[in-house]
Amino acid sequence: MKKLALAATSTLIIAAATAAAADSVASFAAAAEQSRLEFAGVQAGAEFKGVFHKFTASVEFAPDALASSRIDVQIDMNSVDTMDKDRDTTIRSKDVFDVSHNPTAHYVTKTVTKTATGFAAVGALTLRGVTKDVPIEFQFAPAAGGAKLSGSAKLNRLDFGVGQGEWKSTETIGDAVKINFSLVLKPKT
Amino acid sequence: MPNQNSPTRYNAVAQAFHWIIAALIVTQFTLGWTAQFLPLGARKVARLDWHKSFGMTILTLAVLRLLWRLFNRPPELPAGMTTIEKSLARATHVLFYVLLFVMPLTGWMMSSAKNYSVSWFHQFTWPNLIGPNEQAFNLLRTTHDTLSWLLFALALLHILAALKHHFWDKDDVLKRMLPFTKTEKRS
User: Fold this and answer.
1) Given CB atoms, is A33 within the 8 Å cutoff of chain B?
2) Which of A30, B36, B54, B140 could form a disulfide with A183 if both were Cys (CB 3.0 to 4.6 A apart)?
3) Per-residue confidence at A130, pLDDT binned at 50, 70, 90?
4) Which of A37, A161, A44 lies closest to A96 in space, CA to CA?
5) C-alpha distance from B134 to closest chain A C-alpha (Å)
6) pLDDT (0 to 100) of residue B187
7) Is residue A175 part of a domain?
8) Which of A82, A87, A167 sits opposite B42 (nearest CB)?
9) For B8-50, how does the pLDDT look when each residue is reduced to its tens digit (9 = 90+)?
């Protein structure tokens, strides 16, 4: 009886240890200077691009432990830059980003999966006070002193109420917005 | 290619270029000058969207018109005109051609400098001519605006001159650009 109990206990310990090993993910933070978060929208039939200068990203990732992998991004909406002051002022205003009430946007993944070309994730994006799932696709490449994570997403701005009043019309500003990101990851200390 | 204009009349192609571009320019003044007074907003963006599409249409037509003009001499000016009048008429027309290019080009550069790329009726996007640059934008806007007044003055002079030829000199200068009319064959 004693022998059996011992065997059972050791099996449990081994199982737990194996599970722990499979679950081990590396923790990273995006290096602000080298990382980039861009978006592209359509204004009056022509594409325009913008960036967010300030954002933080915390990444826990291992290609063999996707269940416990996670990407968490906080974006300072005030740091929007489309290379035109007038447009940036409009974007920050109440009808568009409403930065005075919603200064940050937040994206956190719920599930991460492997795809034929890289990885995909579905996460909750909170933008202008509205939270909705947004899928992303990305590549993860270990690099010297960390890793590089880059990818893209597509969303519809009106799903988040980005564009009220006169800016609701998709004739002037298209609904679809493309997102591109390239994060240079450093191990968390 | 032989000259397609008769000695006394502009042919259908020349007339089409003239009247289509004239109508587009009137449209451009209406859109451009009224858009200035709109507050920054969706209505202004939409109005300037039309302005840009029409402007790029004018630029394209201007290229075709200039090419056509190079191979087709216009009808001769009436013999009764003085040398100064003839020089003035030529200078006016040269300046019109210059503005047909400079107006759309400064507008296109303005849009590029503001990082608002130019679409052609939402069908395709023209490449940016210069990078985003606020100073360049301000300079180009002043140029575009000032030249619009020059174009307006030139058009006024052009119209008054055409009416003067028609009603005062009683020659065929106006009629030879008018469709559905006849000009006397010069002997």
Assistant:
1) no
2) A30
3) very high
4) A161
5) 8
6) 39
7) yes
8) A167
9) 788 888 999 999 999 999 999 999 999 989 998 999 999 999 9
CB contact under 8 A, A45 and B125: yes
d(CA A115, CA A121): 10
Residue A2 buriedness (CB in 10 A; 0-12 / 13-18 / 19+)? exposed
Q: Which domain holds residue B69?
A: 12-177
Residue of A91, A171, A175 for testing the chain B interface, max B β-carbons within 10 Å: A171
Q: Which residues of B touch A90 (CB under 8 A)?
A: 40-41
Which residues are CB-contacts of A168 (< 8 A; sequence separation ≥ 6)? A158
| Domain of residue A153, CATH code | 2.40.128.110
**CATH assignment at residue B128:** 1.20.950
What six digits make up the tokens of B143? 């140029």
Structurally, how many domains does chain A consist of?
A: 1
| Host domain of residue A180 | 25-187
Sequence-ordered strand ranges (E) for chain B? 119-120, 124-125
Is residue B27 one of the residues assigned to a domain?
yes
pTM for the full predicted model? 0.85
Judge: B116–A171 Cβ closer than 8 Å, yes or no: no
Given the structure tokens 């993860």, which residue do they identify?
Answer: A140
A9 domain-assigned: no
